[in-house]
Amino acid sequence: MEQLQTVKKFFRWYYFNNSEKIKAPESTESREFGYRDFNGNMVRHLSFKSEGEYRAFLVKTVPKSVYYSVAFYIDPTAPMESKGWIKADLVFDIDIKDVSEKIKENSFWICKKCHSFGRLPAPKVCPNCGSEVEEVEWVCDECLNEVKGAALDLLNILTEDFGLSKKEISIYFSGNNGYHFYVYNEEMRKMGQQERMEIVDYITMKGFDSSVYSKNIPENGFMINRKRVPVDPNVTVDIKRVFRAPDSLHDESGLAKKEVDSLESFDPLDKAVVLPEEPVEVLMYYMPSIRFKGETFGPYKQEKVKVPAYVAVYAVLKGLAEFTENRSG
Amino acid sequence: MESFLGVEDYAKYPFLPESISYALRRNPNLSVDKIDSIEIMGFEPKVVLDVTRKRLITGIKSGVSPKLDDVHHEISLVSFIISMIAVRFIDDQVVYSRFAIAEARRSEGYLLEEIEKNPRGKDVAKVIFEKVSNVKLNQLDQGFLIPLSDFIKFSVKGETSWKLVNRWVYMGNVYVKHNELAHMFREISMKSIIERINKMPKPAVKGSLLELIKEIEEAKPRPRTIAYTGKMPPCIEFQMNQLKQGVNIPHSARFLLATYLINIGWNPEDIVELFRTAPDFNEKITKYQVMQISGAKGSGTKYMVPSCEKLLTLNLCKRDETCDNIKNPLQYGRFKKRT
Hints:
The complex is a heterodimer.
Chain A: H1 2-18, E1 33-36, E2 42-46, H2 51-61, E3 65-69, E4 71-73, E5 85-88, E6 90-95, H3 96-99, H4 102-106, E7 108-111, E8 117-119, E9 133-136, H5 141-161, E10 169-173, E11 178-183, H6 186-189, H7 193-204, H8 210-215, H9 233-237, E12 242-244, E13 258-259, H10 268-271, E14 279-287, E15 290-292, E16 295-297, E17 300-308, H11 309-317, E18 321-323
Helix pairs in contact in A: 1-11
Chain B: H1 7-12, H2 17-26, H3 45-62, H4 73-90, H5 93-117, H6 121-133, E1 138-139, E2 143-147, H7 148-154, E3 169-170, E4 173-177, H8 178-199, H9 208-219, H10 234-244, H11 251-263, H12 268-274, H13 283-294, H14 308-313
Helix pairs in contact in B: 3-4, 3-5, 3-9, 4-9, 5-6, 5-8, 12-13
C-alpha cells in the first residue's frame, strides 16, 4: 500500500501541474464519469457540469484511473436503467496482445513473493516458493510498430471504406499497450449494439465469405483491398461503457492516454511519458530493457538503481520493483 | 421534385406521405361516417367499396395486394385509405402486418418494373425509395450506392449476403443490386404502413364498411394455440414472440426456430401452425420447408440447430446469463413438450 501511496504522489504532481491541459469531453454534463481510487474502489455515476469542475476533481481526488462514458445521457448520475441514453461515440480498442507475435516472445512471468521469473507459459505457482505468479507483457519497438500498423489499417478502413473525414476521428495511445479510436460522426453515434456489431464484424472480417463478397461487387467496380484489424468487439459494442479518459494516467504504467497527431511519427514511449524526470531509487527485482524518451533503461536484476520517476513508476506498477524509501505525502 | 410524381405513381405507392395528402386534398369529405355515400370521379360508393374489398381480401389471403391496374387511379388510392381504416378497426397486430406486407409487396412489384422496363424508371425508383426511407441514393448501372449507416439500418438481418463484411463498401457507401434495393424498399414500406396504422385513432365504423370488416375477420389467419412447458432459450423465445406479434422475421430466424423445435420433438404440423402468423405465411411452402428440415423430405437428413457462435454472427443471439457455457441452443436445459 505504501508503494502505491508513492505512485499517488507522482500522479498528484501530474494532475496538479497539467490540469489546464486536460480536456473534458464534448457535452461534459451529459457524460457519466467513474474512477478507481488507490485503495482499489471503483466509483461510477458521477457527473461534472464543466471542464473546470472535472479538472478540480482530478487535482483533488488524484484517481488511480479515470473514465467517462462513450454515451451521452439525459441524467448521467441516475441508475443505469434510467439514465436516458441519447447516443454514444463509436469507439475502437486495438490491444497489442491481439496484434503482435513479438510481444508474446518478450513477455514473462514473475513471482509476487520471491520475484523469480521466467519465460511464458507461466507455471501455475512459483516453482521456487509456491506463491502466486503474474504475467507481464513487455513492449518493444518492434511490437509497438506492429500495433501501430494495425492502427494505420483501421484508420484506412474508417477513412476510405467508411468515408469518414479525419476531423471526425480522434486517435489516442491507450496509455499502456494499444490505441483507442473515437468516431464522432452523428449517424454512427446513433447506432445501437447490433449495428455496431456489423461494423466490428466488417473490421475484424468475422463471417467474411469471399464467394458471397465477390457476387456483391458492382460491375466495373474495382476490388477493395480488405485487411483484418483485430479490434476488441466488446469495447465497440458496449454503448454504455466508461472508457479511459484522454490525458489521464494509466494505472498499469503511469503513462498518459495521449492524443496522436500523426500515427506514422508517433512514439508512445516518448510522447506519453509525462511523469517527472526526478531521479528516484528503486529496488528492481527484474526489468528487461526498455527505451523511454530515447534513452534505454535496464536490463536490471535484483539491484538498487536510481532512475527517472516515470521509469520507477512504470516498473512498480508492473510489479517489477519497489521504492526504497517512503516518499508519499 | 414534387411534380415528378403523378396520380398513377400515387396509386402505385399509396402509403407515401404525398400520396395520402393528394387523396385527402382531392376528397376533402373522405371520412369514416361518409364511406357509404362517397363518390370518386363519378363512380358510386359501391364501386369504391368493391375495390377496397378486393384489395383487402386478396391481400390478406394471398399475401400480395392486387395491382388494380384496371381501376381508376383515384379510386385505387382511396381504396387504400379505406383499407387502412378497416384494418385499424380490427385492432390486431397480425392483421396490420399481413396487410402491410401485402401492400409493400404490391408496390415492390411496381418498383422492380420501373427499374427493369421503363426508361425513366431508375430515376422514379430512386425518388420513390428516397421518399419512403429518407435516404439519399447514388445511381450506378446495375444498382445503387446507399449510405453505410442506412444500409446497416435497413439490411436484412441474419442473412450472410446482407452482412456488411460481405459487401462492397467504399467512401461511406454500400453497393446494392436492383433486386436488393426493392427488397429493402419492401421492408421499409411495410414498417411505414404499420407505423401509420398504429398512429391512427380507432375509428367508429358503421354501415357497409362494417360488413366488409366481418369478411376480413374471417379471412385472417387463425393459428391453433400450441401449449408447451419448460423454458425456451432466449433466442428462440424472442423469435416466437416476434412471430406472435406478426413481425416478418428473417429466413435465418425461421430456420433456427424450425430446426430447434424439430430437434426437441415438436411435430412438423405444429411448427407450420406456429408460422401461420408470419405476415408472408404460405402454407404449402412452409410445410415443404419444415418437412425438408425434419428430414421427412429431400435428402432425408435432419438439419442441425445453428451453433451459438453462428447465431452471434447472424445477430440472432439474445444471450443472457443463463446461456453461460452453452455452444448450441439445444443445450439450454431439458425441454418437455405437452400437447
